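Final report, closing paragraph on structural work. Over the funding period we assembled a curated collection of sequence-structure pairs, and we close with a single example.
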Amino acid sequence: MKSLVGSVGLRSMRNRMTALFALLVAVLMIGVVLGMIRLERRRATARVDEILQLALERAQHEAYDEADPKKTLVQNVQSEQGEIAAGQVALWVVQGERVLWSSQQDAPPNPHTHSDWRARTLVIGSQSVIIARHWEPEEEELRATTRELVGLGFLVVTTTAILAWLLVGLILSPIVRLAHQAQNATLQGVSVRLLPPSSDVEMNYLTGTLNDLLTRLEHQAQERGHFYAAASHELRTPIQVLLGEIEVARSRPRSIEEHEEVLFQVQQDAEKMAELVQDLLQLNALEMRQNLAAKEEINVAFWIERAIEQQSQRIEARSLSLDVQLQDLLIDAPPSHVEVLLRNLVENATKYSDSNSVIRINLTSEVDGVQFEISNSCEMPAVVHFDEWFVPFFRTDATRSSQMVGNGLGLPICRELCTANGWDISLHTDGTGLTVRVKF
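Its predicted structure, as stored:
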């Protein structure tokens, strides 16, 4: 894990947080260093200005106020040079542009024209006393201070980055431990649970969320296992029937009529098996969201009437009556999905209704959409758990003993169709029959 974290660069949360923290500290230190350098420069300027001003006042006092009138200005300045300069400034006596005297032989003739000198001028008659201080020593001191501050800033940023790296690693270590726990988990069946690597609220929440996900995956895996087992059983039964019929047909010579009867039965069984396989494929495609057709504006009443027409023979054979109340209502939906949904619901209602009973079909407009409702009269279990009715291959005892036995995939397909399109399907009973509601 450590080598992985070190090799992924800024894709690592730890690296990004450390880099961001170091960048923020670096920006802060740059601001601090620039501010301190500016402050030191202002202090140095103020210090030099103060030295020049004091020297100017001393020159005014010594070379003018208390000057010996018998001496020239040059002589007065020379005699009071130590008192005026105090070892901190250089002195010039000039007349016009001509330098009469300078305290430093290597000094420029006019310090006012040089940027590396700071100067003040005292005018006495036709002559002037220039008091100046070389700025280079202050500039060198400022450069040294800048180097020290930059070095200190670099040290602070480096130390901060190291501490941030360690601190972020400590904060994120529970996630690493949780990942190691998941990697080293031993699968017992499909049951895996993770333990919180720390007592932090966030880690408890993360671990709880992951365990909830694992629980759902476990339930889905169990349901999928039950589905595969039931599908294998449902496919094996008609195959065994087919093989048995073929074996019986070949066991002795038979007439053409007998062979036709056997072939007819084989054809019926093969059609049932083909229907079962088709339903299995459709259910799997819906569960995997591989059957999402394009939506169109369709009239729901048209597809209800079509589904009723497809069951007309069964309705007549079982002496069923229809109470149909439809409105011409439009919805945006895949036509194939609406057709399969309504066909399955109408087929189930006609297949499992009591003979000589009434099937009621209503299509109404509701505040939150369009509602389809179909009700029939049939034998209902004493205790009903409608969630089980949407499990593939589930059959009630009444349907198992009925002459009309389906493959147990109708309602699961209906639920997956509704889930795929955002519709709501629900089952209701008053004890004498079943009502199915779909809200488009």
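DSSP finds 13 helices and eleven strands in the chain. The CA atoms of residues 14 and 169 lie 6 Å apart. We thank the funder for supporting this effort.
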